[in-house]
Amino acid sequence: MLTKDFNYTVIPNGVCAAQGFVASGVHCGLRKNKNRPDLALIYSETMCQAAAVYTQNRVKGAPIYVTQRHLANQQAQAIIINSGNANTCNPDGEEKAQIMCQTIADQLAIAASDVVVASTGIIGESLPIELIVDAAPALKNQLSREGNDQAAAAILTTDTCQKEYAISLEIAGKTVNIGGISKGSGMIHPNMATMLCFVTTDAAIESTLLQQAVRDVTDETFNMISVDGDTSTNDMVTVLASSLADNTLISDSNSAEYQSFVQGLYVVLMQLSRKIAQDGEGASKLLECQVTGAKEKSTARFVAKSIITSSLVKSAMFGQDPNWGRILCAIGYSDGDFAIENVQVDLASTKGRETVCLNGSRADFDVKKLESILTEDEIFIYVDLGQGEAKATAWGCDLTYDYVKINADYHT
Amino acid sequence: MLTKDFNYTVIPNGVCAAQGFVASGVHCGLRKNKNRPDLALIYSETMCQAAAVYTQNRVKGAPIYVTQRHLANQQAQAIIINSGNANTCNPDGEEKAQIMCQTIADQLAIAASDVVVASTGIIGESLPIELIVDAAPALKNQLSREGNDQAAAAILTTDTCQKEYAISLEIAGKTVNIGGISKGSGMIHPNMATMLCFVTTDAAIESTLLQQAVRDVTDETFNMISVDGDTSTNDMVTVLASSLADNTLISDSNSAEYQSFVQGLYVVLMQLSRKIAQDGEGASKLLECQVTGAKEKSTARFVAKSIITSSLVKSAMFGQDPNWGRILCAIGYSDGDFAIENVQVDLASTKGRETVCLNGSRADFDVKKLESILTEDEIFIYVDLGQGEAKATAWGCDLTYDYVKINADYHT
Predict the structure, then answer these.
(1) Confidence band (pLDDT; 50, 70, 90) for B49?
(2) N or C end of chain A: smaller count of CB under 10 Å?
């Protein structure tokens, strides 16, 4: 998705990097551990253009429905998020999601319909809304330009680390900032959107183009990661654009300015996607699968996702086992148009690169070198289908004892 | 698939239960453990009608291609199977699979084209064909009416137990026997056929009807189990019918006789499917998911398979964790036509049954009773979609530390 001449600078402050945004995170009591914040707020001083993509799971969390209604006019000014409870499969879920919006809107003196709401945590437990109502004043009072870390921490569940990324880029002579936070860990197999990701930017961009950019970039980033094949009920990617960068309004999808913005958004969402895959539940390794040489883009996507989703490939990577036959097996059962006798597979890491399969059969590889390659924390799987020009990249993680451990006793 | 008046008797001797069949199993050296047989033979004294279904993986083991050619005339008299090596992704694979057929055909004084060949084990390692050639005389000499156990043992890989099942039923006044062996364990997510299953019967049935029966029954049995979501390269279900039961030839798919045969085949394949799910790699529990009330059969199938394939549901069952929200999540991301607000979910075992979800929301259930239900080795998940009459059943197993352990070091 990136052109060779695309330049950007990595900057600090995550979701507060763009002009006009403040954030906060507090402990309201939804999580038992008092040292972990569980309620986050992102606020823009000015009204923003807003765009979002949501889970395609037919079971949707109540906050998804409320947010969809609030973003019907493609504008928003605040985002409130809780962890510890997904507010999903509850008869009073939408009512409580609406109370979350109204409560924080009252604090901020804005309209409830300009608030985006998201929840993550266990499904099917009633949301103790009074905890959120009681914490709303503190959440508002702690808003600051440095609140991004607290907000990033407050949206986590079984994640082991915060996930933030921000960049600045130049669009027609003006500096534009784009920054985001996300959470992932388990139930990660996004379809259209993933878990939770909140992005802010000071770019001036028309809301319809913002929506198009979010959809296209999500397809290449969050929709190309998998931790466990389970598509969550509460996935959401939301972008707020404040226009404070003072760039000429981006209003043409064929313009160089729009292409720059899309590439900037790609960098941020791709980095946040990788962080989610790397911090998948129990994961010890990040897997990046690059598929090239496909006749169709869809084939490249199917093959890349099939490989990083395979339990057998994931287990082999955990065991640092060069069992490349499982990669061939996962290619074979993926959808799409390819001829297995044209397939080449390479495995690589910072320790080097080895071709393990040529023309669909075993290549003459150095087993010792291969084993050494697999000891690293980031493993690259290169698949050349040898039939065309289309390509795709997907990210995943290994399957470990800890994944099972985490998910065998999440509830209790 | 079973009518209420269908009667059958469970009998011993697995693949040797039907008249005319003998079997054997020997250790030829493909597996390191000398106490484990790794080469099996099933032989019919008379020429049989033969039918098979195969994996839909685009990467197919060499034996699949050879068997497809040999069964083009819908006749066969012997089946040779090795474990320890899948003979897949090898440039000389088909040549060696053909040598396996020729070698045993010479011993049996039959044509190589009347031999079915199958292999299971690691992908992409050259098959040491000389071990099989050397063992062929012993394999033939040990053929006996009691050889079914040895044959059942010789086809196993990481399976922890042999999988055999046989029944007798009456068709138009004659006793017909149907018996089979199978192996499973890992890389189990069949699509059209599964891993390896070999069935013998003495029924007299036209080969086209035999093929139809195998396809239809496989769709309801092996194609409804999943251990790890990975569809193997070597899946195959083969049925040989010797005609020695002396029943009037079954030649009409609308006849009561054909329906009886299909139901008998269903019982055998369903029991073998359950055994594979129960003995999934590392599994401690069998999961049976019965979906009812669907508008379309396809919806019932999608929902049942989605639930028993979910890593999060499987981990929760291992942890005996009544986290029913994960079942709702897996229903939600499955394909098919349903309304989540009509859904009811019950969990059951020999300890009782509890409704955990009513109308898509949490039901008022007894947590202590539910926890007790989940301590059993066979867990039943009942899903009523509340919208129609179609139904489907799927089988799976829990996801345990041992699955990861087994697959992290299978190769080395």
Answers:
(1) very high
(2) C
How much is the ipTM here?
A: 0.70
Domain ranges in chain A are 9-278, 286-408
User: Tell me: domain B286-408, CATH 3.40.50.620, correct?
Assistant: no
User: CA B254, CA A361: separation in Å to the nearest integer?
Assistant: 46
- Rounded Cα distance, B111 and B106, in Å: 8
| Best mutation target, B192, B358, B407, to test chain A (most A CBs within 10 A) | B407
Task: Give A205-235 pLDDT, tens digit per residue.
Answer: 999 999 988 888 888 887 777 766 666 677 7
Whether pLDDT at A192 is above 50: no
CATH class of the domain comprising A9-278: alpha beta
**Which B residues in the span 239-268 are in contact with A, Cβ-Cβ below 8 Å?**
none
pLDDT of residue A190 exceeding 60: no
Q: How confident is the model at residue B197 (pLDDT cuts 50, 70, 90)?
A: confident
Mutation target vs A (from B295, B326, B375; most A CBs, 10 A cutoff): B326
d(CA A361, CA A55): 39
Q: CA-CA distance, A212 to A56, in Å (whole number)?
A: 17
Q: Which of residues 175-214 of A touch B (CB under 8 A)?
A: 186-187, 189, 191
Instruction: In whole angstroms, give the CA distance from residue A127 to residue A86.
Output: 8
Give the confidence band of A193 by pLDDT, cuts at 50, 70, 90.
very low
What tokens appear for A361 in the block? 């059969």
Q: Which residues lie closer than 8 Å to B12 by C-beta, 6 or more apart?
A: B166
Name the B residues in 371-410 with CB < 8 Å from any A CB.
399-401, 403-410
Taking contacts as CB-CB distances below 8 angstroms, the residues of chain B near A361 are 89-91, 124
Q: Looking at the complex, does the CB of residue B90 fall below 8 Å from at least one CB of chain A? A: yes
Q: Which residues of A are catalytic?
A: 194
The number of helix segments (H) and strand segments (E) in chain A equals 11, 15
Q: Is the pLDDT of residue B184 over 70?
A: yes
